[in-house]
Amino acid sequence: MRRKTPQEKKKYSYAKDRRNAYGENDKSSRKNIPRRKKAPHRANRRRAGQILETITGAVDESAEEGAEVRLLSRRPKSWKKLRDAPLGEIVQNRLERRIQLGIEDRVRGAKRIRQVRKRLHKPSAPERFTGVHIEVG
Known about the structure:
The chain is mainly α. The chain is 58% helix and 3% strand. The chain contains five helices and two strands. A two-stranded antiparallel sheet has the order 1-2. Helix 4 (87-101) packs antiparallel against helix 5.
């Protein structure tokens, strides 16, 4: 395997590295992801237990069928984790926001965004905030 140049490393980093874009503290994900996964499972188990509790006692087929219908009539609760955003997109969004807020000069910011997009191999598009058309090339 040949060594990567610093430019190749940066390009790879922008494409493959991920950052938390959800808006919460990235460290809290260690606790919140497992918590969010187990909450719907717990709610589903509780609901099933409550429905099955109503049919305890003597065997009554109509009650069993009614409980089964109630159990299957509602879709179970679920939660799915969303992927973190690529580092290149996060950098690009931050640059665009700086331009929008007036922190960054429009021309200099457009140039920096062009560099990021070039590293990401994304086609250029007119910028939302700069008013400057950016072309990769």
